[in-house]
Each structure stands twice: as structure tokens, then as C-alpha cells.
Design goal:
The protein has a domain at 6-19 and 45-80 and 131-194. Strands 1-2 form a two-stranded antiparallel sheet. Helices cover 63% and strands 3% of the residues. The two termini are 24 Å apart. It has twelve helices and two strands. The chain has 199 residues and is mainly α.
């Protein structure tokens, strides 16, 4: 069985070990999936590791990193209050910022995000952000966008974690590498989420 959510990526790259995750894994039920109300009732979520937990741990890492851009992004995410359209818009704008920072143009971006409009055009016209700052904000916004979107039948049928797991892992990996978060603190926070406490 795959490790849950972002931990699949963190174990694969050596950031955490299966042994360090033992307190968490012992708390988790067997894998199963349930339908949710997202996407008109077509979405799924994991009973073993709901997608919201990746988002919560990504927010923990973002707080520990202490960057003003991440704090501003988190405030916008919180203001969206789980609304899928608003979270998609935040994810789209964050991706536009990464594309602009990397030297791409709006036309190229619109090939991937067909609903890009005036807000994204303004981002391409503005001075670019530092790449890593833009990428971290993109990761945070995408985790929440994917959490609101839910899992697809593809994920449930194959027992896979959702697409938000990887951007969550990017933030957590960065916080650990920069000495702002330890593996023990991460595992404790994950256990708290499973036990119904805040991370």
C-alpha cells in the first residue's frame, strides 16, 4: 500500500523514512474511498488520508517558512472558504506568476489555462517575482485547489493519492531543508490531524 498523500513523495526522495512514519501509519485505517459533494457529487476522497490533510500540512510548512508572500496567499485561501472557483482562480494566478518568472508569455500560458484572462495578463505585465517564492506560493494554492476539487475515479480505482500531494511535499521538503520544520514535528502534526486535533 502506498504511503499516504505527501508522505509518498517525501519518503521516495529520502526526506522521511517509513520508520519515522510508524506512529502515523499505526493510526491509519485501511484504504477506502467515499464520494463527496465536490464537482456535483462526482468527486471522491480517501478515508485513510483525506486530501484536506495534505493542505493542512502544507499550511503548517508555509507558516514555518515565514514568508510574507506565503502569508498573503494563505489569507486569500482562507478568504475563499473552500469555494472551488475561487481556489481555482488563485491557483491559476499563482501558476501565471511562475510562468512569467520563468520567461514564458501569456499566449503560452493560455494553452494550459484556457480560462486565463485580465488578471493573468496583468501578472505577465508586472515585474517578475523571485522564482522560488513564486513556486512556493503556487504549491500552496494548488494544494488547496486540488483539495476542493477532490479525487477522481482514476485515483480511487487505483488507490492513488491526489494531485495535491506533490505540491504539499514541495513546501514541507523546503521547510525541513531550511531548518524550519523537523520530521518529528511533521509526523506529530500529521498524527494530530488523524486524532482530530489541529496541526
Amino acid at each position: 500500500m502506498l504511503l499516504p498523500g505527501l508522505f509518498f513523495h517525501l519518503e521516495r526522495d529520502g526526506t522521511v523514512t517509513a520508520e519515522a512514519l510508524a506512529p502515523l501509519l499505526s493510526r491509519l485505517p485501511p484504504q477506502s474511498f467515499v464520494r463527496t459533494e465536490a464537482r456535483g457529487g462526482e468527486a471522491f476522497d480517501s478515508v485513510r488520508w483525506p486530501v484536506a490533510r495534505d493542505a493542512a500540512l502544507a499550511s503548517l510548512a508555509a507558516r514555518r517558512l515565514g514568508e510574507s508572500t506565503l502569508a498573503a496567499a494563505q489569507a486569500e485561501i482562507d478568504a475563499a472558504a473552500g469555494d472551488p472557483a475561487r481556489l481555482r482562480a488563485l491557483a491559476r494566478a499563482a501558476s501565471a506568476r511562475v510562468f512569467a518568472t520563468a520567461g514564458a508569455d501569456l499566449e503560452m500560458f493560455q494553452r494550459l489555462w484556457h480560462d486565463a484572462g485580465a488578471e493573468e495578463a496583468a501578472i505577465f505585465a508586472a515585474p517578475p517575482w523571485p522564482f522560488e517564492a513564486a513556486r512556493r506560493v503556487e504549491s500552496l494554492c494548488h494544494v488547496y485547489h486540488h483539495a476542493a476539487d477532490g479525487l477522481y475515479a482514476y485515483h480511487a480505482y487505483r488507490g492513488l493519492h491526489g494531485p495535491g500531494a506533490e505540491p504539499a511535499a514541495i513546501l514541507v521538503r523546503t521547510a525541513i531543508a531550511m531548518g524550519r520544520l523537523t520530521v518529528d514535528e511533521l509526523v506529530s502534526a500529521a498524527c494530530a490531524l488523524v486524532d482530530g486535533r489541529a496541526a
